[in-house]
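Milestone 3.1: sequence recovery, worked example.
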């Protein structure tokens, strides 16, 4: 367990909460700026034996982007209505809890937190929930996501899952 001081813990939480707000408010450009250019964004799938896949290069993932370019392409498709899965855009509400600093170095903070996202579209509300493991790189008094692994606990879903659901 890291001995992060209260001020830094507050900054970690504020950073994580701001990402949820950007997604809920569809503020795509500031959301993208929260990610380092080489940030990995990964949501593994659950295998037949109820184990998460471990290698996004050789096993199925629900979402995988090796760097921010993939996220930028996704946002481009959402913004230009080239994503039928995102039309109409759902209304989302991110609830983020249990933020825990797992380790810390001079360069980064590893955190674990839970999410519950409500997504409303076509007069239906869906729930998505799980745990996120992230490496936050320390940069100029703030943070950037260097890696984000999303473990979706309710993976039997009736629609395409997208970045704004988690």
């Amino acid at each position: 367990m890291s001995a992060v001081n209260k001020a830094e813990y507050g900054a970690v939480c504020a950073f994580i909460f701001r990402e949820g707000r950007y997604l809920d408010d569809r503020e795509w450009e500031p959301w993208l700026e929260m990610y380092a250019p080489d940030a990995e964004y990964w949501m593994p799938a659950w295998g037949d034996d109820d184990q998460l896949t471990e290698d996004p290069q050789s096993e199925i993932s629900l979402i995988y982007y090796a760097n921010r370019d993939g996220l930028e392409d996704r946002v481009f498709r959402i913004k230009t209505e080239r994503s039928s899965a995102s039309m109409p855009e759902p209304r989302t509400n991110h609830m983020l809890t249990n933020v825990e600093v797992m380790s810390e170095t001079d360069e980064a903070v590893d955190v674990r937190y839970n999410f519950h996202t409500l997504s409303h579209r076509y007069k239906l509300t869906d729930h998505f929930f799980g745990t996120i493991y992230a490496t936050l790189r320390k940069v100029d008094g703030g943070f950037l996501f260097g890696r984000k692994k999303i473990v979706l606990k309710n993976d039997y879903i009736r629609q395409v899952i997208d970045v704004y659901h988690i």
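Residues 25 and 94 are 10 Å apart (CA to CA). The chain has three helices and six strands.
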